[in-house]
Amino acid sequence: MQLLTKMFRLFLVALVLTLTACSSQEEADYKRAQKEIAQEHYRIGLSYLDRVIKRNNTKSLTLEAAREAARISFFEIKDFNKTIDYHHFIVLNSVDEKERLESQKQIAAIYFNNLQNYQRAIIEYSKLQQMPHTDLEEAQYKMNIARAQYYQNNFFQAESEIDSLLKLKGDDATRFSALMLKGNILVARKDFIKAADIFKQLIQSYPEKAIQENVALILAVCYEENLDFKNAIAILEEHRTKYNPPEYIELRIKRLQERMKNAPGAKGFRK
Questions:
Q1: Residues 233, 219 contacting (CB under 8 angstroms)
Q2: DSSP symbols for 17-52
Q3: Which of 47, 150, 223, 254 would be 158's cystine partner, CB 3.0–4.6 Å?
Q4: Are 33 and 40 contacting, i.e. CB atoms less than 8 angstroms apart?
Q5: Using CA atoms, how far apart are residues 12 and 49, in angstroms rounded to an integer?
Q6: Average pLDDT of the chain?
Q7: Mind listing the pLDDT tens digit for each residue in 60-98?
């Protein structure tokens, strides 16, 4: 019995010494990383941070290393896949709910904006929908999912997501973006009549924003595609003073006038 007790004590001592040594090594690697980063040796610094994260012995220090590694890999090295790995580590290991949420947002945004991996972005935004969020955030997530579907030519899924979004209480900016995307989806599907209705609504409801986004020019294209040259010309003439350079609008009008002359059977929108 005494022998077992003595062996257990020796084991505990060895364990403590091992953990202390590991902790000391982690701190040393972290300090080396900070020194290299301060000298803008970012890749070397990141290699030391990776050692700290791999050991994962001291939670507070390991998480700090992951945060710093995420920052360096994103802003300095532009290695977005590594950035995602660090944020995944934070999501799995941080006890701070807000930090986990912010890291998940970063993961989704990187897949969407930096890697243009829209299929994976949809998955990550769907995860965000399962985490605590506001109605405005829900609208933003749906908007990005709809855009990701649109960029993959999944027009039915994109429109379905937009229709769901428009039922939410969102701000004007989100609603404008949602309607704009729906109009573009309808254009892609060559449903120019319904698209024109949406673009007319945007011009009436959000005149300043519509000018910034060239909505009148897109509306003119919808009319033109449906061979309604008269309305296409009318909308361009109505907005000719609002766009620069004005010569571009003049050329568009002249081209449409020429097409109208050469197409005696040109029709307006079918009822």
A1: no
A2: HHHHHHHHHHHHHHHHHHHHHHTT-HHHHHHHHHHH
A3: 150
A4: no
A5: 29
A6: 90
A7: 999 999 999 999 999 999 999 999 999 999 999 999 999
